[in-house]
Amino acid sequence: MRHNQVIYLITTTIQEDEIGNQIPVETERKVYANEFSVSSNEYYNAALSGLRPAKMFEIYSFEYQGEGKLKHNDITYRIIRTESRGEKTRLTCERVAADG
Predict the structure, then answer these.
(1) What's the rounded Cα separation, in Å, for the pair 8 and 59?
(2) Does residue 100 fall inside a structural domain?
(3) What range does the domain containing 81 cover?
(4) Does residue 77 fall inside a structural domain?
(5) What is the pLDDT along the chain (100 residues), one digit of tens a residue?
(6) Phi, psi of 99 (to 5 degrees)
(7) Which of 6, 17, 81, 91 has the largest count of CB atoms under 10 Å?
(8) Helix (H, G, I), strand (E, B) or coil at 16
């Protein structure tokens, strides 16, 4: 399979401003991935735990550095499960609710 989907892995770090307030700063890193659908079995099993898996992406394992979120088509997802398959890793994600 080709890695033809562009995703952005998001790393969050905490920085302090001039008066000591802690501010989360997100950094995005572009990665190419394969997109998969979440199986109905996996969806319902995750729903029992209160999770709502929406998408699954496969990337090369060396590209994943423990990020907690990703963005695809301008939609932010939280990574709820990772599965290493040798040289590739699958990321199962749920959509992040909009602020406000």
Answers:
(1) 11
(2) no
(3) 5-14+21-57+65-95
(4) yes
(5) 688 899 999 999 999 988 989 999 999 999 999 999 876 666 656 655 666 778 999 999 999 999 999 999 999 999 988 999 899 999 999 988 764 3
(6) -70, 140
(7) 91
(8) strand
Whether 36 is covered by a domain: the verdict is yes
Please indicate, yes or no, if residue 38 is contained in any of the structural domains: yes
Q: How many domains does the chain have?
A: 1
Question: What tokens does 89 get?
Answer: 């890793």
Spatial CB neighbours of 45, under 8 Å, sequence gap ≥ 6: none
Task: Find tokens 């998408």 and name the residue.
Answer: 55
Of the candidates 38, 90, 39, 14, which has an alpha carbon nearest to the alpha carbon of residue 79? Answer: 90
* Token output for 7: 């995703």
Q: What is the distance, to the nearest Å, from the Cα of residue 66 to the centroid of all Cα atoms in its chain?
A: 9
Whole-structure pTM value: 0.81
- Asked if residue 57 lies in contact with residue 72, where contact means CB atoms within 8 angstroms, the answer is yes
